[in-house]
Design a protein that fits this description.
Blueprint: E1 6-17, E2 20-31, E3 35-39, H1 46-53, E4 63-71, E5 74-84, H2 96-101, E6 103-106, H3 117-127, H4 133-146, H5 150-153, H6 166-178, E7 184-188, H7 196-209, E8 214-219, H8 222-228, E9 231-236, E10 239-245, H9 246-249, H10 257-263
Parallel strand pairs: 3-8, 3-9, 6-7, 7-8
Antiparallel strand pairs: 1-2, 1-4, 4-5, 9-10
Helix pairs in contact: 3-4, 3-6, 4-6
The structure holds adenosine-5'-triphosphate and magnesium ion.
Length: 268
C-alpha cells in the first residue's frame, strides 16, 4: 500500500504518438516527499510519462492523451478518451505555465542556456518577476548549493555556463530546475553523461532534497533506483508491469517474473 498522501495520482493514462502507442492505461500514485523510481528498458515510455505529468506533452503535435493526472488531488490533465493534445483543456488551471513551474525537469543531457552561470539560475525567477539583486543573489547561492556546485563556481558566476564541464553543466541544470522552488522534481536519466563521482554527489543531494519536494527519478540504471527510491515502478512497452516498494521490486521475489528478470539484468 502507498503511504498517503499522494502528491501525484495517475489514472488510466494513455499516450499515443500518431499510431504509436507509448503508454497504455497506466495508473499509479506517487507519494509526497519521497524519491519515486521509474525503471524500464529504452523506448518503454518513461520520458512520455514525465511529459504527461508536467504537461509538456502539449508541445508534441502528434500526441493524443487519455486518462487523468492529479496533483494534490486537483486534476491537471483529464481526457476520457484519446484526445489530441491541442484540444486538452487547462482543467480549470488559470495558467498552464504556472502549473509547469511547480515541476522542475532535468533532461538526460545538460540543457544550458547560452548565458552566465548566474543568469542561468536567475532566468526563471526573473521571468516570474523577482528583480531585487540581493534576493537573486541569495537564490543563486541556495540553488547552486543544493545542486552541489556552489563551491566550484562561486568565484566565477559571470562565466558562461557552457564553459563548465559536462558534470558541472548537469548540476547547473539541476540548480536551474530548483530555481523556481518546484514541488516536484523530475529527473530523466540525469546521470547518463556524467562521471560516477559526480553522480554520487548528486545522488546525495537528492536524498536531502526529498525533505522539501517529491522526486520522480526515471532511470535505466536500475541500481540507481535501488539506491535512492523508496518505491519503484517498472514500465515495459508502455505498460506498468508493477509498482511496489523498491525493496520488493529488487528482492528477486517481485510479483511479476518480468520484473525479476529485468532487475537482474536478463533483459533490457
Ligand atoms: N514525438 C514522437 N513521435 C513518435 N513517436 C515517439 C515520439 N516520442 C516518443 N515516441 C516513441 O514512443 C515510445 C516511448 O518513448 P519514450 O521516449 O517515452 O521512451 P523512454 O522509455 O523514455 O525511452 P529511453 O529510455 O530511450 O529514453 C518510443 O517507441 C518512442 O520512439
Ligand atoms: Mg527517455
Amino acid at each position: 500500500m502507498v503511504d498517503l498522501p499522494a502528491k501525484i495520482r495517475v489514472e488510466g493514462l494513455g499516450v499515443s504518438y500518431g499510431d504509436k502507442i507509448a503508454l497504455k492505461d497506466l495508473s499509479l500514485q506517487i507519494p509526497a516527499n519521497q524519491i519515486f523510481g521509474i525503471i524500464g528498458p529504452a523506448q518503454s515510455g518513461k520520458t512520455t510519462f514525465l511529459k504527461a505529468v508536467n504537461r509538456t506533452i502539449d508541445f508534441v503535435s502528434n500526441a493524443t492523451v487519455k486518462g487523468r493526472v492529479l496533483m494534490d488531488n486537483q486534476s491537471v490533465l483529464d481526457a476520457s478518451s484519446f484526445t489530441p493534445v491541442k484540444k486538452l483543456s487547462n482543467n480549470g488551471m488559470r495558467d498552464l505555465c504556472g502549473y509547469r513551474r511547480r515541476i522542475g525537469m532535468v533532461a538526460p543531457l545538460p540543457v544550458g542556456l547560452p548565458m552566465t552561470i548566474y543568469d542561468n539560475v536567475t532566468f526563471a525567477p526573473r521571468q516570474a518577476g523577482i528583480r531585487k539583486k540581493d534576493e537573486l543573489d541569495t537564490l543563486v547561492e541556495r540553488c547552486l548549493t543544493q545542486a552541489a556546485l556552489w563551491d566550484e563556481v562561486k568565484d566565477r558566476l559571470d562565466t558562461l555556463g557552457t564553459k563548465l564541464s559536462g558534470g558541472q553543466q548537469q548540476r547547473l541544470t539541476i540548480a536551474r530546475a530548483l530555481s523556481h522552488e518546484p514541488e516536484v522534481l523530475c529527473l530523466d536519466e540525469f546521470s547518463i553523461a556524467i562521471d560516477p563521482v559526480t553522480t554520487m554527489r548528486i545522488e546525495d543531494v537528492l536524498k536531502e532534497l526529498k525533505a522539501e519536494m517529491t522526486i520522480i527519478l526515471v532511470t535505466n540504471l536500475v541500481q540507481q533506483a535501488r539506491r535512492l527510491a523508496k518505491r519503484t515502478a517498472f514500465i515495459l512497452n508502455g505498460e506498468l508491469v508493477e509498482e511496489d516498494t523498491t525493496k520488493k521490486i529488487f528482492s528477486g521475489n517481485a510479483s511479476d517474473s518480468r520484473t525479476n528478470e529485468f532487475v537482474s539484468g536478463i533483459f533490457g
